Amino acid sequence: MEWLVIIGLIFYLIHDRRKTDRMEREIEELKRELAAYRHQSDPGVHAENLPEDGRQRTAGNAAKPPHPVSGSLETQAKKTSPSPDPVKKSEPAAPLRPAPGGGKAAPAPAPRRSRSEWEQLIGGKWLNRIGAFALILGIGFFLKYAFDNNLIPEWMRVLIGFLVGAALLVAGGRFSKRGLPIFAQGLVGAGIAILYLSVYASFNFYHLVPQTVALLGMSGVTVLAFQQAMRHHSLAVSMLGWSGGYLTPFLLSTGEAQSLGLLTYLALLTAGLLLVIRKREQWIVLLPLTFIATYLVFTFWRSEMFSAEETGIALAFIAIYWGLFHGLDLWCWLKRVTSHAVIRRVVSFFNALFFTIIVYDLMNFQASDWTAAALLLIGMAYGGSFLMTERMKPFPKPIRGQLSQCLFIAAALVVLATLDQFSGYTLTVLWGLEACLMAFWGIYKKQRSLWLTALGLFGLIPLQLAYSAAVKPIPPADFTPLLNGRALASAATAGALGAGAYIYRRLKGTWAVVPSILHLTWCIVLFVWLTGEVHQFFEMLMLEKTGIHRQLFEIRKIWSIVGAWLVYALLLTRIGLRKKNSPLVFVGFGAMVLALGAGLILGWFFYPIALYTPLFNVRFFLLGLSALAVYLMGRWLRGEKKFHFKGLPIVISFVIGFILFQMLTAETLDYYRQAVYLLEEQGAPREELIRLSNRLQLTLSMVWILYSLALMAVGIWRRKQGARMMAIGLFGLTILKLFLFDLSFLETLYRIISFIVLGLILIGVSYVYSRYKGLFMAPEKDDSATDKTRGLL
Description:
Elements: H1 2-41, H2 43-49, H3 52-62, H4 68-80, H5 115-148, H6 154-177, H7 181-205, H8 211-232, H9 235-251, H10 259-279, H11 286-304, H12 311-334, H13 341-366, H14 371-390, H15 397-421, H16 424-444, H17 448-471, H18 485-503, H19 514-541, H20 547-579, H21 582-602, H22 618-636, H23 648-682, H24 686-717, H25 721-745, H26 748-776, H27 783-792
Helix pairs in contact: 1-2, 1-3, 1-4, 1-5, 1-6, 6-7, 7-8, 7-9, 8-9, 9-10, 10-11, 10-12, 11-12, 11-13, 12-13, 13-14, 13-15, 14-15, 15-16, 15-17, 16-17, 16-18, 17-18, 18-19, 19-20, 19-21, 20-21, 20-22, 21-22, 22-23, 23-24, 23-25, 24-25, 24-26, 25-26
């Protein structure tokens, strides 16, 4: 407590020094103004009677603006004194020079002090200040000595602190009235700090008062601090009161848990601070600080002093804290307060976030079954706030942003409540319904935050569906095709995404791509579901299959998936072309490419070879279906300018021709592979296997030649250059095979047959090209005639 007196004396010294300096400045300015006035009335005489340094000061003061105090005296002097001769005009002794960088006049140089003035300054002012400071230090050391030796009792020390603090407050009020607000605010802040320390010392150091009295005292000082801050318009004093208010529970703590008192004090302090913020909008920095401090103190209490029996108290008080901050938001919205909108919006968001987290934690700790209801209730509170306030529109843009955030919070809490209460495929279906409702209301009511929330939820729904399918797969024994939870959830997801795409069709600009993305998403969802459904169906069929029959069902499963892809691709492409829906067509193209790629990889060999049936097997059927699907795709795209390009007919013809080539080649190879397998099972000699291998190569060459001949015939008949070019290419492939393989490995008889048949066919094709080329080949343009035409043009 001895330092409180020292601090008070130091403040008095500072005050006395400033007061003396101000009086000296006023006297000096009065002298200069009087000299200037005399110079204006008779500049020659007055200048002669002044010393050289006085002349310089007089000339310099003529260019300076008068001091506020001296200016008022000069005005009074002008009122009482006779006016000077209007004919005579006084000219300043030292005219002002313009500043080099602009139009402002450069200040005159500071006047020099004379020897007598220096002597007066040192002897009259500096020695006074040093003596006063030495006297204060001496008194301070005396008080410290008195405190150390118990010459002043403890109660008097506290009383001295209160008196010094009160004196500083009174002095601050007086100086504020005299036009010294900054100095007054410093005195008030010092007085508040001393009062805080006095109350703290009376409880913690000297144990003069109980905790309840100390708490009331600290609370009273806090209230006094905010009253003084409002009176003197001082943010610094309010910050001092804020610090003292939140430190009070920790400074007066005895280690015993007093939850009700602490939480009640915290609620009253928060309410008082928010009231101050409402009165002084320019002190907005107190809002985030109050929010952070309130939730930090509550979190500290929750982690260190909380017990299970206090769950109800905790929920009630955290609701009060949230209600105080949210109530301030409502008041700002209704009063259309637009200042500091960003800070208010950030605090409002984190108020909802922390409140939701704390309520979720407390409910899970004691009553987890009611957590979803609590989240839904909070969401309803935000929704009700939005509906109540939205009726009073129009609002300024900053408030519209805060209301949009309020609506977003309400929607997000509804989604979280659903997540807490439900799981699996049920959650997927409910999220789909919520997303559609939010999207419809957001677009219809032009609430951007709401339809953006729905858009984010649309993105979560497929992920939730995939997660549910991965975490809870359907056992094959319990699988029912099309009538299972995964199928229903997938259909609901696709339906919700499709409905969302229809709702969002009104969006313009950057957001116009949203419907296309949603269409792509639901098409992909159905594609994945269809694949999984076929896979699960065959897994169910293979439960009792073993050995070679299980291998047969494995190959059937793969080709069935390829077939499902082809059918799905055709359906999407047809619907997309009719509805002018590009995303559906693109997904159809993608599914078609996947199906053709799978057929290209898997279509060369059949397993198990022992169960192979020529032409009547699933591979031959699916490859034929692939060729038909490509043909239909090309035919549908023929009249579509958006998807049609110049080389499309050639590409379609090539793909169909290659699929047929793969079918014939694979059937030929597997026919002889099965024969070799059967001979090996019967233990046939090696010569028989070699002879069968020669037949395979001969048959393969003949199949290629006949297929080339068929392609050539189709190309000539239909005048399809692509078919003819494919035939020529396949002729070249057959020639390479004959010369590089058959010539070296085939027996002589097979070699003779291969070359004779190939030669006859090639000669026949050459004859047709030479004799009838005009029937199926387009006439060539005459270059010379074209050049003449160009010359005429």
